[in-house]
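pipeline: protein-struct stage 2 | run 1193 | MPN domain-containing protein
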Amino acid sequence: MERLQRLLGGSNGLVQGGAAMNDAPAIDNAETVYISSLALLKMLKHGRAGVPMEVMGLMLGEFVDDFTIHVIDVFAMPQSGTGVSVEAVDDVFQTKMMDMLRQTGRDQMVVDGTTRISVLDAGFRRFEQLNKRAVAVVVDPIQSVKGKVVIDAFRTIDATTLMRGQEPRQSTSNVGHLNKPSIQALIHGLNRHYYSLNIDYHKTSYETNMLMNLHKKSWQSGLEMADYNHADHENLENIQSLVKIAKLYNERVAEEKELSEEQLKTRYVGKQDPKKHLAETSEKIIEENVTSLLTSNVNSLAIQ
């Protein structure tokens, strides 16, 4: 009887332990990595400078809460490699760099690593041993263009959670469910060996001001004179295009006599209307020449 009670007690303890593991707090799929403008610019610059080799860097930031990771700054690491793996992180360089950054007021901790690799290697797992919420950010500076940055954030899935049949993340919202993974990412082990995190860009008021004024024209730009030779060449090209458009417009006037109203409605669908094009080109030539004359007169009077 005592033996049976011990067996029952052991099984109850096992069930309670399993329940406790299942009830443990899990990472949410709404977790978002907010990258500052400074960090993003440094990542793209460092990645493009390392082409065709794969390069690596470390990001500085803070874990705000269970749903937010702020990346404030990034610094390059003296490592490079191929598309399969990157050299091990230089601990001495990292320590010295962190000490120097603290002297400048950067006292944030290392939250993740930024690479140009497509596969997460064992070097990143070392960061996860220090902090389970560490993430790897992968940037492709070659495919990135103005207004569209090819970037993604990943975190490896713990093998023990899969062995216990647990989900690596819990779902409390629809954030992150709208991003459809590519076939390449699925082949490389997405949602099997690692999962993707949401990325957003955090800008301060000063950074927003700076980016808004980056290509802003000042009042002096209206007084800048274009090269006369270049202006004459553009005028000649515009006049030649006007002649071609005028011929097309004459053909359209001749067609209007032969075609019916229904045919005319669909005649220039998906094509350039000669009448509208002629008016737009004429207005453009007049505006440019008037502006050039006024600018030259203002400059001549100012010089006198």
